[in-house]
Structure prediction request, 420 residues.
Amino acid sequence: MLKIAYYELKKLLRDTRWLVIFTLQPVILMILLGLVTFYEPKGISVGILNNSDNVKSEEFLNEIKKEESFSLKYFTDEESLRKDIESNKLKFATIVNIQNNDYISGSIELIENSTVPEITAKAKEKVAKIFEKKATEFAKENVQVNIDSIIDHKKSSFEEEKDNSLADLKNKIDGFSLPMPISDQFKEAINDVSIEADFSSGDNTDVPKVELIESKNTQKEPKYFDFYASAIIVILTILIALKLADTTITEERMTGTFERFFVTPYKKYHMILGKMIAFTVIDIFLAGIILLTMVALFEINLGPYWLVFLIAFVSALTAASLGIFISCITYTIAESIQVSNTIFFSFLILTGLLFQPESMHPAVKFISEILPFTFLVKAMREVNLLGMSFYDVWTKIAIAGLFIFIFLFSASVVLRRKAT
Prediction:
C-alpha cells in the first residue's frame, strides 16, 4: 500500500506542468476572492429626481450627496428615471417630493432594483437612515408650527377677553375711592396679568409629515430564490458543458488517436469544429434538461421559455468552446481538469452570482465586466426578473456568442501535434 502511495506521489511530482497548475490554483482563487470583496460597496449608481425646488428638499439631497458610496445621476423628469432603473441602468433610485409651505410634507420614494438585491439593500439602508434623520427634524419643525399657532390663538383670545374684563375691574377700583398710591398699584398689577397657553381638545394637534414610499423596478413579485435561480441556470450550464469538453483533446493524446489523426487528410480545425458540432447537439439537450428541472421543481419567475433556453444554450456553447481551448493548451487529463476547475471557480466568483462589481477592486471589476458569462448572467436576470424582451438583451447574447468563435479560433492556433 505504501509502495502504491509512493508511486502515485512520484508520478504527480514528476509532472512539472501539473505541479505548477496545482500550486497556482488556490493562489489565484484566494486572490480573486480577496479582490472581489476588496471594498465596502461603492460607486453604486443611484438616480435622483427632485420634484420640489425648496430649501427642505435641498437639505435632504445634500445629505445624500455626502454618501461616498453613491455615484449619483440626476434626472429632470420621472419617465426618464423610471426607464433607466427598469432597464437595469441604475442600481437604486430616489424621487423627492417635499413641500415646504406652512408645513413640511410630501414623500420620498425609494425604488429598488430586483436584479441586485444585495447592492440595492445597501443603498436603501443608507438613504433610509438619511430619511429617518431628516424626517425627524421636519416633524419637529411641524410640531413647533402647531405650538406657535396654538399659543398665538390663546394669546389673542385672552387679549380680547382681558380688554373687557380688566377695564371693568379698573373702573371698580376707581369707584372704591382708594388712596391714589394704592389705586395705582392695583391697576399696575392688573396690567401685568398673563396666561399660560394649554392644549385643549379644540386645538388642531395633527402634524403633517414626509412619508417614505418603497417600490421596485418591476411589476413582477420576485422571490428571494429568483435572484439566484437565474444565475444558477447559467452557472450549471457552464459547469456541465465545460467539464464535458475540457479533456476532449487530451483524451485523444492519451489514447494515441491524436497522432493517428495527423496522418489523415484532415486539418486541425476539422477536429476542433467536429468536436464542437458534437457538443452543440449535446448542449441542446443540456440546456433543455436544466430549464425543465427548474420549471418542474421550483416556482421561479421566468421570461419567455424560448428566450431563457436561448441564453442557456449560448452559455453551454461558450463553455464547450472554452473547454476545447483548455484541452488544446494542456497535455494531460489531470492538467485539463485543474485548469478548467480554476477557470470555472473564477467565473463563479466574478460573474455576479456571489459578489457584485461595486465591492470589487477596479482591476478585477474590469475583468468581470468583459467576461462572456457576466453578460449571460445579466441577460438571464433581466429577462426573468424585469420581463425584458429579446430586443433588450440581444447585444449581451451576441457579445457572449462572439467568444465562441474567439475560443475556437484560439484553440486552432495553439493546438500542437506533439505534447511538448
